[in-house]
Automatic annotation (TrEMBL):
GO MF annotation list: ATP binding; ATP hydrolysis activity; endonuclease activity
Protein name per Swiss-Prot or TrEMBL: PBSX family phage terminase large subunit
Taxon lineage: Bacteria, Bacillati, Bacillota, Bacilli, Lactobacillales
Highest taxon in the source lineage: Bacteria
Residue ranges constituting the Phage terminase large subunit C-terminal domain according to the UniProt record: 262-404
Matching InterPro entries: P-loop_NTPase (IPR027417), Phage_terminase_lsu (IPR006437), Terminase_L_C (IPR035413), Terminase_L_N (IPR035412), Terminase_large_su_SPP1-like (IPR044269), Viral_DNA_packaging_terminase (IPR052380)
Gene3D superfamilies noted in UniProt: 3.30.420.280, P-loop containing nucleotide triphosphate hydrolases
Species of provenance: Ligilactobacillus ubinensis
Pfam families: Terminase_3 (PF04466), Terminase_3C (PF17288)
NCBIfam families: phage_term_2
Length: 430
């Protein structure tokens, strides 16, 4: 067997050395996009498994179904890149990774039912390591503690328990902040660190430039996505109106559906939002999305087809009439039409949207990020205005277009300014 070089200094940046040198009970990494935190944590998982014969890993996300294409795929890719894939057995059913030499396990679980996790047993060694990926999704500190407290027992000499927590810090209200980062309240066994894209030596220049551009164009989003700082919850347009939750298509099968489409290209993403609406209970379910920069017209048409938009009404950004015509006449996208526009149509639409609650599926990332960073503007004196800032709202705009059918459309026509104003007023929103 060839010699495999697993020199950590050649695999991860210095910002992640504590993963391999510290024995703290908790290592909490908040960071920006592209910071390399998930990759580095994945390296930690594999190396610990090979170095410590007693160590088995529990990989946790809020939703079990998100593991296969994220943590599991990441660990598999890292194993190949390190040249150690032959040392591990990768299985999908059950979803787990086995270290062939000893039988140690890397197990994947969701927090749908924390009590089920606490009953896990391993046949070789001890369940003494955990990696909480996308920890911002975690709903409950109590549930987190329930799982962590189940990892107990006497380990071999010099053995230690350790949990890695990695996440993007979208809101400073999240319990992760007080539990691991605030000096007065944090767990004293925790080592808390912040990383950015500057801690990743493997990013291409175009990606780095897009992040730098975000600092100028979308500072609220860049606060988290570029600088790795805590997002600010104050002034959120949809404050307390949204939640992330896993739900099946069967739950929304009988609800009316529509697709919104907001066009972007180099600097801004093209956002396609897929929603179902429960008018009786005033709940909007956003069940799918594509959210990508640099999309050409044909790629947009393909994405609409792949995400099963065909057959649904598609309401698109009216500022791009040419793209709408191309999608319809050149690429055969049916049922697509421009969104209505007029005096105060944006603020009226946002006000009407605030009369609903939103349930966002875990696969819908772009909209969730925007919900967490879409804020009202301020005047020169720092006073809040009633108009949202324009610049971090591509998915929100897309969703507003999709909801237009259920807000401001009457007898197949987009309402006039006065009719829209009356509709908003009738809801008691102004």
């Amino acid at each position: 067997m060839p010699v495999i070089d697993l020199d950590v200094s050649k695999i991860v940046s210095p910002a992640y050395y504590p993963l391999f040198t510290a024995s703290n009970r908790y290592l909490a990494y908040k960071g920006s996009r592209g910071s390399g935190k998930s990759y580095s944590a994945g390296v930690k998982v594999l190396l610990d498994t090979m170095i410590y014969p007693y160590a088995n890993w529990l990989i946790v996300r809020q939703y079990f179904g998100t593991h296969k294409d994220s943590t599991y795929a990441t660990l598999k890719r890292i194993a190949y890149s390190l040249g150690v894939s032959d040392l591990f057995k990768f299985t999908v059913s059950p979803l787990e990774i086995t270290y062939k030499q000893t039988g140690q396990k890397i197990l994947f679980r969701g927090m749908d039912d924390p009590l089920k996790i606490t009953s896990i047993n391993v046949t070789t060694g001890y369940l003494c390591r955990s990696w909480w990926e996308e920890a911002y999704e975690l709903k409950s500190l109590d549930a987190f503690h329930t799982v962590e407290e189940s990892m107990r027992g006497v380990l071999p000499d010099n053995g230690f328990y350790q949990s890695i927590i990695t996440f993007n810090p979208w809101s400073d209200r999240h319990w992760l902040k007080s539990e691991f980062f605030d000096e007065k309240t944090k767990d004293k066994r925790a080592l808390a660190l912040t990383t950015t894209y500057k801690d990743n030596d493997y990013l291409d220049n175009d990606y780095i430039e897009s992040l730098k551009d975000m600092l100028v164009r979308n500072p609220n989003r860049a606060r988290v996505a570029v600088l790795g700082e805590w997002g600010i919850a104050e002034g959120l347009v949809f404050d307390s109106l949204f939640e992330q939750r896993d739900f099946s298509y069967e739950e929304i099968a009988n609800l009316p559906k529509a697709v919104g489409l907001d066009f972007g290209f180099k600097h801004d993403p093209t956002a396609g939002e897929f929603m179902a609406i429960d008018q009786k209970n005033r709940v909007v379910y956003v069940y799918d999305e594509f959210y990508q920069q640099g999309m050409l017209t044909q790629q947009i048409a393909q994405a609409l087809a792949q995400h099963k938009a065909i057959g649904l009404p598609i309401i698109a950004d009216s500022a791009e009439q040419r793209l709408i015509v191309e999608l319809s006449q050149v690429f055969g996208v049916p049922n697509i039409r421009p969104a209505g526009k007029g005096k105060d149509s944006v603020i009226q639409g946002v006000q009407y949207m605030q009369s609903y609650k939103y349930v966002v599926h875990p696969r819908v990332k772009g909209l969730l990020e925007e919900f967490n960073t879409y804020v009202y503007g301020k005047d020169k004196e720092g006073n809040w205005l009633n108009t949202p800032e324009d610049g971090n709202n591509h998915a929100v705009d897309s969703l507003r277009y999709a909801m237009e059918l259920f807000m401001f459309t009457q007898h197949g026509q987009y309402m006039s300014y006065q009719e829209r104003q009356k509709a908003v007023k009738n809801l008691g929103l102004i």
